[in-house]
Amino acid sequence: EVHLVESGGGLVEPGGSLTLSCAASGFTFSTSSMNWVRQAPGKELERIATISPGGRMKSYSDPVKGRFTISRDNAKNTLYLQLNSVQVADTAMYYCKHQATGQRGQGTQVTVSS
Fold it and tell me: Deepest of 4, 40, 48, 81, by most Cβ within 10 A of its Cβ?
């Protein structure tokens, strides 16, 4: 059973940085493509980053390209999202998602505010 636990969210000022983590268990993490998705209040779920099983292939949505970085440590079964130059529009609940099954964790809240 896919089990994902996100952490690292919080309150950050515009222009600041934050690193999110996602601890994975219950499946073979090293052979799984993973996503980060987010949902802002009143908006639909948005996929913002994808990483291949080995970590070499990455893709980003336009709103976060150049500011966010997805990475993974397969030895630790952990997925990361580095958020830089955050904007108020980045305020959302952030989830990691197992691409093959679509399952995601409980999420971690990121709030960007001065």
Answer: 81
